[in-house]
Every structure is written in structure tokens, then in C-alpha cells.
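Ticket #4471: structure export looks truncated?
Reporter: QA, pipeline team
Priority: medium

Steps to reproduce: submit the single chain below to the structure queue and open the exported record.
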Amino acid sequence: MWIKFWSSCAGSVPLMTESSIRRELAAHGSLVYTNVGVSMRPLIRQGRDLLVIRTCTGRLRKYDIPLYQRPSGQYVLHRIVRVLPDGYVLCGDNCTQLEHVTDDQILGVLTALERDGRTIPMTAPSMRLYGRLWVGLYPLRLPVLRLRDWLRRKKRRLQGG
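Actual output as written to the record:
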């Protein structure tokens, strides 16, 4: 999931730089943005939900959704599916690839999302249940998602693209 930071209701908002993300978190302890990408569907709706990220202290827990930076510089928001002594294993809710992330890559953690004028904290029982179910169903979702991806690739090849 690419990160687009929210500053107004206008259509196109430029991506923040690393220094401004870190500066915003250091100055205010949080930032609010909307996302670009579908890796966290169905939880997060691309460009429609506002996401609240707060700085985190200490280790994160399974099912938390951290904002982290890949070595390529890309900012990503994915769910923790396993906590390791030296980091975390993460996966987007709409993804098949697992990714290893260290604590120093993590900038903050999703604490709430605003949907249709309503703020939903990630600590709400419905969100906690959703996270547990989504991670628990990963072995069942994995073949379905892989089949979907394979069918999309086949369709593109057949269409000549």
C-alpha cells in the first residue's frame, strides 16, 4: 500500500518525503493520511478512508498494522502476522507475500481509521476480531488470492498486454 498523506479534500496530494514524515511524527506524535493501493483491502478502502498513525514505543504485537519503510524507500502499511525476536513478519490483507521487517524500519502504527465521518479505533472489539480472523484465515485465503493473481496474469496475456 503506497502512502499518500492527507492535507485537504482536494484530489491529488503529493507524497510526503521521509524527512517530513519523520518530522510530523516527531513534532505531533501522529499523522493522518489516505492511502494509495489495495494491499490492505477490504479493511482499508483506497483513497476513501483516513488513517491515523501514531508513533509507537516498544515492541509491536501480532495483528498490529505498522507504517514502515522498505529499503527501496517505499512506505507501506501491512499487518503483523508473526512477531520474531529480531523483527516481524508482515503481510497485506490482500496480499500473498510475507515480508520480514525490523524495528528500525517501523515509523508508527495504525491506531484508527476514519470511514464515512466515523472514527474506528483499532482497539475496538470488531477491529481486533477482524484482525484475528483475517490472519487466521490466511491459509485458506492464500490459494484463493494466488488463483486470482494467476487468472489476472493469464487475462493480461490473452489481451496482449
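Status: closed, not a bug. The export was complete when the record was re-opened. Leaving a note from the reviewer for reference: DSSP finds three helices and ten strands in the chain.
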